[in-house]
Amino acid sequence: MPTDDADRQGTRSVEALEALPHRRHDPLLDQWVLVSAGRTQRPWLGRRERPAATAPVEHDPACYLCPGNRRANGAVNPDYESTFVFTNDFSALRPDVPPLAFDEGLLRAEVEPGTCRVICFARRHDLTLADMTEPDVRRVVDVWADQTAELGERYQWVQVFENRGEAMGASNPHPHGQIWAGAALPNAAAREDATQRAYLAAHGRLLLLDAVAQETAGPRVVAANDDWLVVVPFWAAWPFEVLLVARAPTRRLPDLDDRRRDSLAAILIEVLGAYDGLFDLSFPYSMGWHQAPFRNGDESHWQLHAHFFPPLLDAEKRKFMVGYELLAETQRDLTAEEAAERLRAAVAVAPPSLEPALDGAVAALD
Fold it and tell me: How much is the pTM?
């Protein structure tokens, strides 16, 4: 690990770079990100994001995820009390596909078996993970872990994720996430698999645990507890992107004991509350867990972590990955250090969970 002197020199070097266009290396994906600080001040005549047109309600009779409602395929949801999992009615992957492949010169294709599931986080239509109590979020963590263990018996890659908000393509505002599981190792997972394996072979340590050691108490930390670190990665691509990393060696969600599941629930509420407090709105994002694949081999190079990719630059402007980003490399408009500072301030003033004020309503459902 770097010495204290090296750390101080590194800090001075980063500070010297902050006002200049510069590139930062992403060791997880082994690629570079162009940082162009100050571009958030440019005149903006483009698209502006608008707040939700209507306030959410506790139960929406037209919502296909609310308890007791009929879904698009005709199935009726049970009157569930907390979480509810079902196979997506419009799955992108199916388990019952034949083993077909095509290979002709540069043209290659193969059938991909898998499954897609939906996880309703809560019975109430108007909640988000940030609004829920720690026990309720802990139940979501347990479902993530249980589903990972079950699907890992059949599929190599289990992708737990959530798209929150219309800006991130969420088709329904009910609090929910998804799990896609497939036989192949997807592109991003394959890159992280290779970089983490190579780092362990070269250094004898886990890449992300070295990142935790280097970032702890540093300028990019957003929140932390004994078990988890939330940091705006030095190489972040999205404006307020964060990385949530387990602080002890951990391969997968099912490996977490009760204490670490509880502390995960707490830090999720803290960080997502900060997102909402940043611009005083329900913050859109895509988040997902990266955990060791399920293979018959050594996975000791993997470290459990989650990525959060929110698109907003401010309350009305979003970052579009277009032009240079699509044709050359990713570019961001503010430094990771500035983003972390603003998120830390939002953590300090984040509004309390909405749920305590609703205890009576929840109790009435029990």
Answer: 0.89
What is the pLDDT at residue 51?
63
Contacts of 315-322 with C-beta under 8 Å, sequence gap 24+, read: 315/49, 315/279, 315/280, 315/281, 316/48, 316/49, 316/50, 317/44, 317/46, 317/48, 317/49, 318/47, 318/49, 318/167, 319/238, 319/239, 321/237
Burial (CB count <10 Å: 0-12, 13-18, 19+), residue 234:
buried
| Per-residue pLDDT, 249 | 98
AA letter at 61: P
User: HEC states along 90-104?
Assistant: CCCCECCCCCCEEEE
Q: What CATH number should be reported for the domain whose range is 14-365? A: 3.30.428.10
State the catalytic residue, choosing from 125, 176, 305, 307: 176
pLDDT tens for each residue of 13-72: 787 888 789 999 999 999 999 998 766 565 544 556 666 656 779 999 999 999 999 998
Compute the distance between CA of residue 65 and CA of residue 177 in angstroms, rounded to an integer: 11
Let me know if 176 is a catalytic residue. Answer: yes
Q: Where are the domains of the chain?
A: 14-365
